[in-house]
Write a structure and sequence with these properties.
single chain; 211 residues; mainly alpha; Arc Repressor Mutant, subunit A; Tetracycline Repressor, domain 2; 2 domains; 9 helices; transcription regulation; TetR_C_15; DNA-binding; Homeodomain-like_sf; DNA-binding transcription factor activity
Length: 211
């Protein structure tokens, strides 16, 4: 076993201990932040000895990596479900609005965890954040592909919209600006719907002029 690998629990009692350690790691992380966590803090919060913790996790990074991985999986599933649900909305503007609200709900539920994910999971090529964003891109592009977008590429449109909305919603959660949530939702909805409608109108006008 390499220094960073953790021992996989085989018995129910061992699995229960691991779950307690991970839950404690999450609580301590939210309380103290990444740099403030130590294995002693986690062990104490889990009600186990440091030696017991080291049986399953070689260091604090291994504990926190597991916490972050689980949180990311949960966040991905929540946002994906919310996005699919919004496709039943009666209009394009309603679809956009509901997705903006879903992102704000997801990122705003645990601002401290959102900050950890943003800080500890930079979006580089091959990262989990990049992979998740690509999945959302694909969902949005699939919706756009079913509409008349003129000569515009749905995948490019999706990339632009997803990044704009994600960055704005995460920034609002982390920066706590003097902007009401309702105003933010209105502005982002207007931004995206106008982008869709105006660019589509431009393509239609170009197509008509060339005929």
């Amino acid at each position: 076993m390499s220094p960073r690998e953790r021992r996989a629990p085989r018995q129910a009692r061992s699995r229960a201990t691991v779950e307690r350690i991970v839950a404690a790691g999450r609580a301590v992380l939210l309380e103290r932040g990444w740099d403030g966590v130590t294995t002693n803090h986690v062990a104490a919060a889990a009600g186990v000895s440091p030696g017991s913790l080291y049986q399953y996790f070689p260091d604090k990074e291994a504990v926190l990596d597991e916490v972050v991985d689980r949180e990311t999986v949960h966040l991905e599933a929540r946002i994906s479900r919310a996005f699919v649900d919004t496709l039943r909305a009666p209009s394009r503007g309603d679809v956009v609005r509901r997705n903006v609200e879903a992102l704000l709900d997801a990122f705003g539920e645990q601002p401290a965890m959102t900050r950890v994910l943003a800080d500890q999971m930079p979006r580089g090529a091959g990262s989990r954040r990049a992979a998740f964003a690509r999945r959302v891109d694909e969902l949005v592009a699939a919706v756009l592909a079913g509409q008349d977008t003129g000569q515009r590429r749905p995948d490019v449109m999706a990339w632009v919209m997803v990044r704009a909305v994600e960055q704005a919603t995460i920034g609002w959660v982390l920066e706590d600006p003097p902007v009401d949530r309702a105003d933010l939702v209105d502005e982002l909805t207007l931004l995206v719907t106008r982008y869709l409608e105006r660019r589509w109108d431009r393509e239609v006008a170009r197509s008509t002029a060339s005929d």
